[in-house]
Amino acid sequence: MVAAIPSAFSNRSSRALIPAVLLAVGVLLLPFVRPDRPFELFNWDLVALNKATWLAWLLFTSSAVLSVLSWLRLPMLARGYALIGISSGVSITVFAWLASTSSYFGFGALAALVCLLLVLGVGLSETGLIQSDPFIASSIVLCGIFVTLFIAFPLFVVLRESIIVNGAFTLKKMAETLSSPLFMVLENKFTPRSETTIVFGIATAGAVLGFGLMFLRKARVQLLLGTTLAGGVLGFIVGAGVFGRGAFATSLYLALIVAPTTVFFGLIFAILEQRCRAAWVRRILSIVGILPMITPPFVLAFALENWFGAQGLITNRVFGVDTNYFKGVTGVAIAQILAFTPIAYLTLRGSVQGLNPALEEAAQTMRSNPWMVFTKITLPLLRPGLAAAFLLTVIESLADFSNPILLGGDRSFLATEVYLALTGRYDPNEASVYGAVLLVLVLTILGLQRAWLGNTSFVTVTGKPGSGNFSMLPRWLENTLQGVLGFWGLLVAMLYGSVFYGSFVKIWGVNGEFTLQHYIDFSGTGLEVLARTAQVALVSAIVATLLGFLIAYLVTRQQFFGRSILETTSMLSFATPGTVMGVAYVIAFNVGPWLLTGTFIVLVLALVFRNMPASIRSVMAGLSQIDKALDEASTLLRAPSSTTLARVLVPLLIPQLLSGIVFAFVRGMTAISQIIFLVSPGNLLATVLMLSWLEQGNLGRAAAMSTVMILGLLGMILLLFAFSKRFSRNGTGLEGIG
Fold first, then answer.
1. What is the DSSP letter of 472?
2. Which of 7, 201, 529, 578 is deepest in the core (most CB within 10 A)?
3. DSSP 3-state assignment of 168?
4. What is the pLDDT of residues 39-66, one digit of tens each?
5. pLDDT over 70 percentage in the chain
6. Who contacts 118 (Cβ-Cβ below 8 Å, separation ≥6)?
7. Domain coordinates of the chain in residue numbers?
8. Where are the alpha helices (DSSP H) in 313-401?
9. What are the backbone angles phi and psi of residue 617, rounded to the nearest 5°?
10. For position 270, what pLDDT does the model report?
11. Residue 34 phi, psi (nearest 5)
């Protein structure tokens, strides 16, 4: 017993000493609250001593007590529980005061809460409630709070606002929205036919077709019923999309066109890159993969209008046709297919490259023909990649509102109705209903994806070295696919060329006289907005990458209660349409102590938690290739986890961290669907300004801004590729970029 006593005492001061001291400093120097939306860094009139004297003395007293507890050599368990009790109690008091007084938190309140949460993490570590060192415990607490506050809470608010109107529970608003013709209508009273009968007839035909296909294959009863139901649902979507109207039917019909088409082309390009003999194919595909990343999503819609619109060069000037055929589902579908196919290609690229050629060689040895090898061996192994590509393109299609605004014509779309309900009809409850519908749709598709994959193993890379080479495509098939890629490349070059050309002529399609006036006009407001956008994108990219790195480390290297919840919740923002997250941020952070709308910070936070999941996945993939023995060796040498992260893992994960920063920066520069709800006159971003110019008819100025943005981002990525090669020669390697 005597020997056990010293182990119960701390032999040095607690890690809570520093945040305890900083708590007092922050309360004394930083503005505790804000009188309005803008944040102030130093304002003596707003510090806690002037705004809430009793709260200031409570914080000072707590700081002193926590400092003494941390400095004295006390029993570890007792001190830990004391740290937990004081930090959690004071944190709740601070938040309750902010909420009850309707005060907007300032840097002082934020610093106080962060310091108290750090102390809470130290207490959880010292009590053993989280069996890790204080750095890990504090990181778990902070990451959990951030993810809950900026992902789970906004989504909860959207769902709540769809059924809580004026403080009372009601389903009236949801019923009104879902029964509105803007949402969905089948019957057209101005036509002699019955659209409802036609739609349900198509649905019945789809169900019969699904049943017949599975019945002929003698499938199990569960698969037979599932396929019959799926056939009926798909038939209903097609029928409602063609013969019906409304945002729900149109968006589902559009996604049903776009997602399979983009996955099909993405798979073609991925296979062509790996199994084609021509070197030019890979060069073309590298450009195809980069361009959509550095282009605002509506630029292709703008280019399509230039070529094929009512006054388009081909439709009007060449064929003399004044048509709006490309207005509606057709035009939006083409624009989305061109924009989202590279996303599917980049998603499937890794899956195709990860295949084991020995499996195909074995099938060929058993005298299987190429088609059988592809359908029985290759395609089943690509199911995870196909499912991921399908899910991503469905989300992008449902969330896209810029292409529908430009090319939608008289059609309604879910994303545009979310925007119009909030900014046009000023009805946040209606916008929340549309947002809830979008969220349910995405989660349903995610559930179907997981059910399709099931528990099947798709492992093709083992500890044993692979053998064999992939067989080249048959000549006729290779030539055909090269023709498809060549046509695709020509179309993309034509569309992007029209944007560049339109920035140097007076009026596209009307007056082709050369001018630099659009760039002169852009250099005023546009250049300032572009610089502000770069600032927001850079700050958000760095924060998203660092926070994503920390969360990836916690969920892959640590064991703690709620680990799977943290991982799932942190990835939820990536699986949620950007329009939903935008509405969620507007509603959640427009009132109360967490007032953030209209500020620079809310734009940064929106982009951070939108792009953070990509960094998490990238770092998790990198950590899976680093032996845990390195972490353990660092721990055996008595290095804290913070030292292990900084000195061991960060140098090994430079490729993943840089690629995460680049991805988040580029996505931040071209984002539109989420930040359109959050911009304000003083915090306008480039994509929003460009879209407004297009809507106002300032096509040349929008083309000039688009050209500058594309060339700037392209130049940055090319420089980064050169930087990557230099690091590769030095043995570090940056293969993760791009």
1. P
2. 578
3. strand
4. 888 888 888 877 778 888 999 999 999 9
5. 91
6. 16, 19, 138, 141, 142
7. 1-129, 186-244, 249-454+472-487
8. 329-353, 357-365, 370-373, 379-381, 383-399
9. -65, -40
10. 87
11. -125, 140
Contact 709, 686 (CB under 8 A): yes
DSSP assignment of 243-310 equals H-BSHHHHHHHHHHHHHHHHHHHHHHHHHHHHH-S-HHHHHHHHHHHHGGGGS-TTHHHHHHHHHHST
Cα 571 to the chain's mean position, in Å? 8
**Run of H or E residues at 165:** strand 164-165
Distances (CA, A) of 315 to 256, 309, 408, 487, 545: 27, 7, 18, 19, 46
Contacts (Cβ under 8 Å, ≥6 apart) of 343: 262, 266, 292, 389, 392, 393, 396
Quote the pTM value: 0.85
Spatial distance between the Cα atoms of 435 and 428, rounded to a whole number of angstroms: 10
To which H or E segment does residue 90 belong?
helix 76-100
Using CA atoms of 392, 411, 184, 229 in order, give the dihedral in degrees to the nearest 10. Answer: -40
pLDDT digits (tens, 9 = 90+) for 317-333: 777 777 777 788 999 99
Q: What's the 3-state SS for 615-671?
A: HHHHHHHHHCCCCHHHHHHHHHCCCCHHHHHHHHHHHHCHHHHHHHHHHHHHHHHHC
Do 541 and 668 meet the contact criterion of CB atoms below 8 Å apart?
Answer: yes
Q: Are 306 and 502 in contact (CB under 8 A)?
A: yes
Model pLDDT, residue 680: 84
Q: In the numeric block, which tokens belong to residue 702?
A: 């929008």
Is the pLDDT assigned to residue 165 strictly greater than 80? yes
- CATH class belonging to 249-454+472-487: mainly alpha
